[in-house]
Amino acid sequence: MRIVDPQSAVLSNIEVLAYLTANPPRRPPNPPPNSRHWVPSPDLRDHNTVVKEIHNYVSRLSPHLQSYPQYTHIPLAELEAQAQAQANYHNNSNSNNKDTAASAPPTLLPPKLLNKPTPVDHALRDLVTRLQPYGLTKGEVLMIVNLGIGLIPAAAAEEGEGEEGEEYEEVVVEEEEGGEGEGGQQLEEMEVDDGATNGAQDADNGGAGSGELAEEDYGAMALLDTVIEEREERLSEADVAGILTIIRETLGGGAAAAAR
């Protein structure tokens, strides 16, 4: 990641998370024995607290960021092992144990690898490029990336479909019981109404074409209405469907995008 213009640069939450993950904070040296009110130099305690709070925010309030394409050059497990080895090395170097004084420092990533773009860098570049025809502003695209609009976990989607199916079955049972109790006239009226409704829906579907939003996308469109200013005047439902497709193809790739 390279910042070209620091004055106008804006980092998304996933880019901040990627930087802090690739550059974990250093642990302060151990205080000397029998020392009071000792202040380490440099004093990184506040910095470490901020980094910890950012990781807590991502894990508790923005877990969708962790499902984005890989944002580190090496897997997180290996990166955490390197950070732990580096912390152990600094602790051993500050101790008075002579047996561990000869231990070698952990191997760090070469600068050539650090400057290489990660899969999430490619995904963000593709996202910005493909969203340009829709005329979105920088702030709107940034909020879309931070909120992960349109990225629905598969488990949540299946759970929602199951609940909708149960509600639909209950409504059908109630209608059948009501029809049997009130006679055949009400059933005939319901059939006529259903026929008119289905005809209207078929006409609407024919006019809407393939750009019509899926039922599960209306929640994402409602969230886009709060992010994109004057969305109804600037973007149609077909445009919203195209934007959601681009988001899922770029940021929702996960492991597939990481293997690219």
Automatic annotation (TrEMBL):
Q: Where is this region: Disordered?
A: 22-43, 90-119, 194-214
Name one process (GO BP) from the record. Answer: transcription initiation at RNA polymerase III promoter
Start-end of Pro residues biased regions: 25-34
CC per GO annotation: RNA polymerase III complex
Q: Specify residue ranges for compositional bias: Low complexity.
A: 90-118, 195-205
Question: What InterPro entries does this protein's entry cite?
Answer: RPC9
Which residues are listed as membrane-spanning? none
Q: What is this protein called?
A: DNA-directed RNA polymerase III subunit RPC9
Native organism is Aspergillus indologenus CBS 114.80
